[in-house]
Amino acid sequence: MHAFQPTPPARRTLKKSLYAVLLLSLGGAGCEWLPGYEDPDPANRAPTITQVLATPASINEGSNTGLSVTASDPDGDELTYTWTQTPADPAGTFGGETGSTRTWTAPTIATNTPFTLQVTVSDGKGGSAEATVDVEVVNVASPNRAPTVNEAITVTTPAIAGDVTLSIGATDPDGDTLTYAWSTSVAGQGTFTAPAAAETQWLSPELATATTYTFQVTVSDGTVSVTRTLPVEVAVPQYARDIQPLWDAQCTNCHSSPRGLDLRSDKSYASLVNTAGTGGYPSGCGGTTRVVPSDPNNSLLVKKLSGTACGGRMPQGNAGYFDNNPGQLIRIRSWILAGAANN
């Protein structure tokens, strides 16, 4: 006959049964104290966190801080560390380290912003612990950059007595609002219609000879200013190029008869210069020669374009035209002042 020899698993089962019988005989007392007893399925215990540090705790935007966690696991389990930030936006960047130390790079911000960084420590068996650390992120004002301004002022050519258009191109790399200030190098020479705009018209003085003026524009972003200058020779008007087009645009519809003032291109000069006006004029009109060379104030043409002292104002049907376009009246007066040449 062979004696029963239990297999190793059977022996373990038998051993557990004997412990169970012994436990019952002792009235249900725990068995952890029994020599050689091992709990076959001990309960997992969560890790604990004793300290979380951010060094430094205040950083500039775009800079980084070092994070460190002191944690332990009562069961000796290997721990993993997961980080998040609040607020989530704008997002900073956690480094690629996987242990208890990590870096965090702060995002770009508009104003100083506190962030809370949270770490979750896990043992991989369902146990975890959480802790937080606060980091203050400081907005760093960007250094101001000067406006980018074109090297040269743009000017209409040819520049003729009357009105001259000037402009400057400029941008600001920081997106700042730009302001403009136009002037002449000798203050008070002529008038700018829009002295605070990127483009302006300059109304010249009346000129009898070509004259050079130096224009200046200063562009500012509120902190830094850039100035450009440009000398420009302003010419005396020529009759065919600069004066006749005014008659063609405004006057020939009404003044194209050989019996009166005829402003058609092949008749206008003879009809104006040293030619007496026809018809009756009010007693306060003064001289009635249509154009008196070198004397715009006593030229009937100028009186008719400027007001009503000599009767109805020209152009007919648009009496305020030269009030709205003062540069053109300056151009006519300058042509007369320079001698009213037929050129």
UniProtKB/TrEMBL annotation:
GO molecular function: calcium ion binding
PROSITE patterns listed in its UniProt record: CADHERIN_2 (PS50268)
Swiss-Prot/TrEMBL GO biological process terms: homophilic cell adhesion via plasma membrane adhesion molecules
Superkingdom of origin organism: Bacteria
SMART domains with a match to the protein in the record: PKD (SM00089)
InterPro entries reported in the protein's UniProt record: Cadherin-like_dom (IPR002126), Cadherin-like_sf (IPR015919), Ig-like_fold (IPR013783), PKD/Chitinase_dom (IPR022409), PKD_dom_sf (IPR035986)
GO cellular component, one term: membrane
Residues annotated as domain Cadherin: 51-149
Protein name: Peptidase, M36
